[in-house]
Predict the 3D structure of the following.
Amino acid sequence: FNMQKNFIANASHELRTPLTAITGQLEVILMKERNEEEYRETMTSVLDDMKSLNNTSNRLLLLAQASSETSKVDFNPTRIDDLLWQAQQEIVKRNPDYLIEVGFSDTMEEEAQLTVTGNDQLLKTAVGNLMENGCKYSNHHKVQVLIEPKKKVLHVHFSDNGIGISPNDLKQIFEPFHRGSNALGYKGHGIGLSLVDRIVQLHGGRIEVTSEVGKGTSFKLILPYPNGENLTTA
Ligand code: ADP
């Protein structure tokens, strides 16, 4: 119950902060007659806050959806490489300086090894979050994604050479609204990883993380194959 109370308090805070900023900016601009440039500046800033608000509320909705009963979510055979390319394209369109490299391990032998059972939208959100974090938290805005089919499960690695996560933060990194002590100078709301975690659980998978402060971080997404079949021919 306490966790839920905390969650609601945190969620309200995340929504109220941009709303307060929007209200403040509009109140100030309306206090007297302004020139076109001033109106334009305020509207641009308000639009930024609105986009961020929209993004936060969408993620909260997804978090609620991913936390609800499995029966409400559609599962279908899904190609993981398609989802990765789609997420990559969408992110690079929004952030042209981000570099997202997608590759395959040498255990990759046939297309069937790329198919998992899942919800496209949710899985794309999960991989997109991991890609975006890798770029956001590293100077060169670069993340390496490696698809590694194993015998009964599919591994997808997301590795960066960024700021890293301290051992203390690592313990709480999947809790909603938790942000690392070295991440406070970066934009964010601490919703992404908790969403990734819920989505992965919903798919019967798991997520692991290793990190060293100042060196980099690596997330490993583990997803089961349909029927847990042995797909490697070796
Ligand atoms: P946000 O990025 O909006 O803060 P997330 O839930 O996605 O929210 O991440 C939670 C925290 O985990 C971040 O604040 C940051 O401290 C840490 N984190 C996540 N991914 C990385 C990464 N690739 N490198 C360093 N820190 C990370």
The beta strands are 76-79, 99-104, 115-118, 142-149, 153-160, 206-212, 216-224. DSSP finds six helices and seven strands in the chain. The CA atoms of residues 23 and 46 lie 9 Å apart. Confidence is low (pLDDT under 50) at residues 230-234.
